[in-house]
């Protein structure tokens, strides 16, 4: 090799390697951020859902009837609302995510102490608070990192959670057969702690300054935002009038056993998982996301109808989980995307505002449904959430039509 060429290569090759290294390192930083967020969300979902197949039977062992369960669920919702509001105002998105993961971990750990009404209350409270904070923190982080194709981003973030939520119940049922329930609770405790540790490096990536109140209040709440938030408040009231009971009452209504509960939970999660990203992608390409929100309410109403059909059995139970999975996948991420898109400044505070505002509507929902079930039966009680969901669906269509007329 000529000396001049060798000398040239000695100068050029290190420069090329250096540039390539910097480029790869830059990609690795972006990949590292995404992997931390996804893996932490996955493990938190595992910890949250791993004991779900056992939950109806733990409630039964603790001798908790529907009215008492409604009180317990409402108490957990009240605690969730207060803590969610506090973290929305004073905490950074990363800290919110981390504390949420630890709460999910505690929801499994407390079940190692036994089964009683107080333990059920503690576990449900930790679970509700942990899930609420982890999802709110995750959504805030997503709103900061992704401004383009926000519907796809929120749909993808939800899918990361759903993957763990699908595998969690299946793993829990397997551990129950092979090792016993203690291992389920212990593994849930450990996975929650690990998910919290994984998110720590993101503390340097996400803004941490807070002003003691949600900055979104300083912006203008447009009629479009007020309409979405108002109807979403009613939507969350309706869903929380039904969702806390839909697995708990499955043994009594459909004759479901633990394997049916596990299968239904997995089906519900798989449907939500498979449709989350396509629905988010579709919402980015239609003129108004409120059309998707209206369709979501239709899926939920049809899912509840299965619970009040005379002579309903396991096929109706499984069909209901498919419809409910579609309804769950097509509302929350799309509503978050709509509000985040409309808030040109402080999108993370817009997400926190919506999350906190709608959580208030959850407070009375379970206790009202619990008493309605006790006095009138579940068939009559479930008419309330069906009516509310129908109102939201029609309301979203009306708002969409009004927006088109104005434009």
Keywords:
single chain, 407 residues, 17 helices
How far from one another are the termini?
71 Å
Number of domains: 1
Q: Quick one: biggest sheet? A: none
Q: Could you estimate the helical fraction of the residues in percent?
A: over 70%
Runs with pLDDT <50, length 5+?
16-27
Which CATH architecture is right? Up-down Bundle
Task: Tell me the number of helical segments per DSSP (H or I, 4 or more residues long).
Answer: 17
Class computed from helices, strands and strand pairing: mainly alpha
What is the CATH superfamily?
MFS general substrate transporter like domains
The string of secondary-structure elements, in order, is HHHHHHHHHHHHHHHHH
Rounded to an integer in angstroms, the radius of gyration calculated over CA atoms is 23 Å
Q: So what's the overall shape?
A: globular
Instruction: Report mean pLDDT, rounded to a whole number.
Output: 77
| CATH fold naming | Growth Hormone, Chain: A
Strand fraction band? Answer: under 5%
């Amino acid at each position: 090799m000529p000396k001049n060429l060798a000398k040239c290569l000695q100068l050029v090759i290190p420069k090329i390697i250096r540039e390539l290294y910097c480029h790869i390192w830059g990609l690795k930083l972006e990949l590292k951020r995404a992997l931390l967020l996804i893996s932490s969300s996955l493990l938190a979902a595992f910890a949250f859902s791993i004991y779900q197949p056992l939950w109806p039977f733990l409630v039964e062992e603790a001798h908790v009837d529907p009215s008492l369960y409604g009180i317990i669920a409402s108490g957990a919702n009240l605690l969730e609302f207060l803590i969610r509001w506090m973290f929305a105002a004073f905490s950074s998105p990363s800290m919110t995510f981390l504390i949420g993961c630890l709460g999910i971990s505690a929801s499994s750990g407390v079940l190692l102490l036994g089964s009683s009404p107080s333990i059920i209350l503690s576990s449900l409270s930790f679970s509700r608070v942990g899930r609420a904070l982890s999802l709110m923190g995750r959504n805030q982080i997503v709103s900061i990192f992704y401004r383009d194709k926000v519907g796809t981003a929120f749909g993808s973030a939800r899918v990361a959670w759903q993957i763990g939520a699908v595998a969690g119940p299946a793993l829990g049922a397997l551990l129950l057969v092979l090792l016993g329930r203690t291992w389920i609770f212990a593994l849930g405790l450990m996975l929650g702690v690990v998910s919290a540790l994984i998110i720590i490096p993101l503390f340097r990536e996400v803004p941490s300054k807070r002003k003691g109140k949600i900055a979104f209040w300083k912006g203008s709440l447009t009629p479009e935002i007020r309409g979405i938030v108002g109807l979403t408040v009613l939507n969350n009231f309706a869903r929380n009038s039904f969702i806390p009971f839909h697995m708990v009452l499955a043994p009594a209504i459909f004759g479901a056993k633990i394997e049916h509960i596990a299968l239904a939970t997995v089906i519900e999660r798989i449907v939500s998982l498979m449709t989350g990203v396509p629905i988010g992608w579709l919402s980015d390409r239609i003129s108004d996301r409120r059309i998707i929100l209206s369709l979501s309410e239709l899926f939920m109403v049809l899912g509840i109808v299965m619970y009040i059909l005379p002579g309903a059995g396991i096929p109706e139970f499984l069909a209901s989980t498919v419809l409910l999975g579609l309804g769950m996948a097509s509302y929350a991420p799309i509503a978050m995307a709509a509000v985040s898109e409309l808030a040109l400044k402080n999108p993370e505070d817009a997400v926190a505002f919506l999350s906190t505002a709608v959580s208030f509507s959850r407070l009375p929902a379970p206790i009202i449904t619990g008493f309605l079930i006790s006095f009138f039966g579940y068939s009559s009680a479930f008419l309330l959430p069906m009516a509310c969901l129908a109102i939201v669906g029609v309301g979203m269509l009306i708002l969409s039509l009004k927006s088109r007329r104005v434009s």
